[in-house]
């Protein structure tokens, strides 16, 4: 495949997880958008959109840090490593600062700037500058002191005219003065002044708008926002221009005896005599042509951050090839849709607005995660398919994958190679015809395989809205004109199929429609008590659970169809809400919530994603909320949940948000057909282990009894799905003693049995 990017990291990658009340999480973040870099004594730290990684230049080891480790999911804007204190300081666009103690990995969240009574759009952290143990934080409102020894804030300097807020881009200390590059001139004050919070102490040296300022060797260098590089002349107390760049700069820093200036397309490396020793253009990096964001040097190596292509390295002297030095990961953090199999995870990045408008069209590729790492297939290899929004894997052949597009039709991938793009020219799919300017606009936003291996898809905004690609390669179309109130305004969403072969499709204006080709019947569940009892006609997802109930998520809440078999017998299908008791008051579960996805796990629990309230896990009947994960109580990088997928073999739940992909390592796995593959882990249970014992490979509704070696019963339960957990307590009262414990497993009808042992060492 041409230009395929296989992000398999040859270096050692450490990905860290933490336990939160025995919960296990894993982060799968993109490290392609480099926001800032900082040099340490043994390597380099790099900040991507909302995660960090460090490269040890001695061992070539790469270590990642993300929300699982305690970082915020917000957007990072600045990064600084202090060699004196061995601490990394991370600044965010919303004003948050996180200080990481590199000795033990502990983190401190500093929220003083967030809490300042200032407009939210003025709190961005632009730059950190350390001087005499104090970090001077450049913000969009002024300068703030932060003491790395005491971990406390000092004074705040509002140095604009008459003490007004002013955006500070960067600060530097030179010959006893602290200089600040601002959008309204370069200003300075005596660094030893006890009253730096008095704006009168700050004198303007030069007018204009300035992007950066830095002390380098015996010089003070500043760059205007237009890209004009100046040096300070102490004799005349003025800045003198000496280089005019072809475009504005995005970064300037001094380290490793070099001054490095970065513009989007070029990097300029100057030595101590301010002579240009190397210039790097983006077109010198083959197959990438990146947009530069920052650059730093250490040990004669220059580290180059880019906006979409990660971190590159090359030598400053004796020009060498460019190498990519970053953790593997997906192409982007804003993942719109995912799909999991027993051995892989697929992700796409296309999207649409809340009313299904895909414009402006995006040109993103596809990502796949497997045991060999991340495979990122670039847009150039996906046959010009734009706005890829939905994934379906052939259940009988994992190497055959289909991806729906909200503009280009249906993309087929075979053995990781995009092979066919089905559209109006080579398939039964149709383009929008009622809008004259929408040429070649073929929208497929839902797909599902039936038991016979036929692929059913929905085709929005056309008369024949349901299509099927049969196993023999032929297409068949079915009209939806009779069921939709206005075909030209009702877009299709997600799609599922039940055990009877009935296809259920979410729509933007007609609720849920059901279709069964055997009876050639279409039925609708929509808004109103006489029409299906949905809270609104805008439905987003329908999921069939293990008890044949249809769980429906809308933009205004949740509804349940008690039995999908009613499609065969009832003229009007009617749903009901789930009423729960909260604070002794009857309330509707997920009332008014915008539900984006519902996925059923092996234990028949429901994972429910929302547009702005995080992720819910509810019990099989919805009466108990087992977990409600948000950015405040979990590693979720965002409360915006785009998609959910479960690996039925391992129980790992993948959660795609607009700020990153993360997974929850649950134990609700799909039930097995028999007890031939039952296993117990960990075994033995050692003294340092604090988790639960898992009995996996079970059939649904298996009876599990655990006794000590003398036959005394210590635990009994019935499995839901393929895995059951034992906390090693005797009926929840006390921890069992060291010894061998017998596990007796039997099917619900008693026909099939299995016996296992587990050793517990206290």
UniProtKB/TrEMBL annotation:
> Is the keyword Signal assigned to this protein?
yes
Give residue ranges for domain PorZ N-terminal beta-propeller: 44-202
Q: SUPFAM superfamilies recorded for this chain?
A: NHL repeat (SSF101898), Quinoprotein alcohol dehydrogenase-like (SSF50998)
Q: What is this protein called?
A: Immunoreactive 84kD antigen PG93
**Keywords, ordered alphabetically:** Signal
Upper classification of the organism: Bacteria, Pseudomonadati, Bacteroidota, Flavobacteriia, Flavobacteriales
Q: Which Pfam families match?
A: PorZ_N_b_propeller
Q: Which InterPro entries match?
A: PorZ_N, Quinoprotein_ADH-like_sf, Secre_tail, WD40/YVTN_repeat-like_dom_sf
Source organism, top-level taxon: Bacteria
According to the record, the signal peptide region is 1-19
